[in-house]
Amino acid sequence: MKVTVDVDITPEEVRKLFGLPDVEGFQRQLLEDMRERIASGAEGYDPAKLLQPYINSSLASWDLFQKVLLGATQATTRSQAGDDKKARKDG
């Protein structure tokens, strides 16, 4: 059996439905900050320096996320290895 449901809702309604944060204000502020930096340093404009504060915080968050996933993976692997040993011992 195959069931298909089509839902016609806006992105804002989807965010609210799933409890996701509304980041529109943050994105607007980020773009405004970038425009100000570009306007103030148009002569020596360097995109890498412009985005450096945002990249650093993003990389730190990504590193933390990877550590959490690695820890969860290792815990699952240890748990499965313990279950296998117990099954062989009981069997």
Written description of the protein model:
It is a single chain. The chain has 91 residues and is mainly α. The protein has one domain (11-90). 76% of the residues lie in helices and 0% in strands. The protein is built from three helices and no strands. The chain is flat, with a radius of gyration of 24 Å.
| Mean pLDDT figure | 79
Beta strand count: 0
Number of helices: 3
**Which range best describes the helical content: under 10%, 10-25%, 25-40%, 40-55%, 55-70% or over 70%?**
over 70%
List low-pLDDT spans: none
Q: Which structural class is indicated by helix and strand composition?
A: mainly alpha
Radius of gyration: 24 Å
Largest sheet descriptor: none
Number of domains: 1
How far apart, in Å, are the first and last alpha carbons? 40 Å
Q: Give the DSSP E fraction (strand runs of 2 or more residues).
A: under 5%
Shape, per Cα inertia axes: flat
Q: Secondary-structure element order, as H and E?
A: HHH
What's the short version?
The protein is an all-alpha fold. 76% of the residues lie in helices and 0% in strands.
Which keywords apply here?
91 residues; mainly alpha
SSE blueprint:
Layout: H1 11-18, H2 24-40, H3 47-90
Protein name: DUF6489 family protein
InterPro entries: DUF6489
